[in-house]
Design brief:
This protein is mainly α. It is 49% helix and 5% strand.
Length: 351
């Protein structure tokens, strides 16, 4: 929301808003209540310590040139709220240790195999990308509908890796987004995370990570020039889109250029919102499912969690949209410190 739009909706002058932001003046109680109502945040949110927002230069935004400043800043602000929720969870639960090695000295194809071997995966297909990331300490959150034009992004914050996924895309595209962002975390932790070369490397890493060359060649050579219908079946081996598989096969020399062009033309009829033979189950978060199940069992409601963070429940919903069910309805009750301590010691997330 622009300052002018906020001024009109809250019936406050732009100058006054500028004074409030800069600290030259403080709003009266009724004025603050109006601002909070328009911005859809509890009044208590404005009395919290400053929220540390991610720095744009350290975030792996794709197609940055097509994003407006508002869309970019909205995504960054969502990241700031995720930091606070993540810290809240870490104070109460034992999450997996972070295990993302620095692979900047490798090319994307080699880095993908190095990481697979480091994690003991070999060339096996990956069943659930979100579970895999979480099992290695990555904090996975969703982008809200307000930021649906953002594909996905990732960043390191206080030595903790974060990935934000657009869960309104097809399952296959979301899996590739997750692998793409993993590439940024492993390849670009200590360098630039934007630019054509950086995006190209992350894209190549994602394809190689989800579709290892040895795995692909072990299946595809038995076919002579995979057809459109054959590719629609083959993609299920790796849980990827037909477009991603066709590009990978073309890159490995297993799909001639003329066949690749024909398949791309056929795929263009589906658009980005549909996937041929797309019946894959939506991947969800194991961490969030376990956390909120335990909170529910202890009598903690969704409203209780939101209140502790000085947020509304819709803000929590936005952070986990499509990643899990935040079914913590009803009135919460107090839990003892002993019970909370016991949960912290007992809880650990596994792949």
């Amino acid at each position: 929301m622009t300052k002018v739009a906020l001024s009109e909706r809250a019936r406050i002058s732009v100058k006054s808003l500028g004074d409030f932001e800069s600290g030259r003046a403080s709003p009266a109680a009724d004025t603050l209540a109006e601002i909070a109502s328009v911005l859809r945040f509890p009044v208590a949110f404005f009395f919290r310590p400053d929220v540390e927002e991610p720095i744009a230069d350290g975030v792996s935004f794709r197609s940055l040139s097509t994003l407006t400043a508002g869309q970019r800043d909205s995504a960054l602000s969502a990241g700031a709220l995720a930091f606070e929720l993540s810290e809240w969870l870490e104070q109460r639960f034992e999450l997996e240790a972070i295990d993302i090695p620095d692979l900047r000295e490798y090319g994307p194809e080699e880095a993908a195999m190095v990481l697979r071997n480091h994690w003991g995966i070999g060339v096996r297909p990956i069943g659930n990308m979100i579970h895999l990331l979480e099992s290695r300490g990555v904090r996975v959150f969703s982008l809200s509908q307000r930021t649906r034009r953002v594909d996905a992004f990732s960043l390191w914050f206080r030595d903790v890796p974060f990935v934000f996924l657009n869960t309104m895309k097809t399952v296959e595209h979301s899996r590739m987004d997750a692998a793409h962002e993993l590439g940024h975390l492993a390849l670009h932790r200590h360098g630039a995370v934007r630019g054509r070369d950086v995006e190209r490397d992350a894209k190549a890493f994602g394809a190689a990570f989800l579709m290892p060359e040895a795995s692909v060649r072990g299946v595809v050579p038995r076919l002579t020039g995979p057809s459109f219908s054959q590719l629609a079946q083959l993609k299920h081996n790796w849980g990827v889109s037909m477009a991603a598989l066709a590009m990978r096969l073309n890159h490995l020399g297993l799909l001639p250029d003329w066949s690749y062009r024909g398949i791309c033309i056929e795929l263009s009829k589906y658009g980005r919102s549909r996937e041929p033979n797309g019946n894959a189950e939506r991947e969800t978060s194991a961490v969030l499912a376990k956390v909120f199940e335990m909170l529910r069992e202890s009598g903690t409601s969704k409203a209780d969690v939101a209140k502790q963070l000085d947020l509304y429940t819709e803000d929590l919903d936005a952070l986990i949209f499509g990643l899990g069910q935040l079914a913590l309805q009803g009135v919460g009750r107090q839990t003892t410190n002993a019970a909370a301590t016991s949960r912290r010691r007992a809880f650990k997330v596994y792949q």
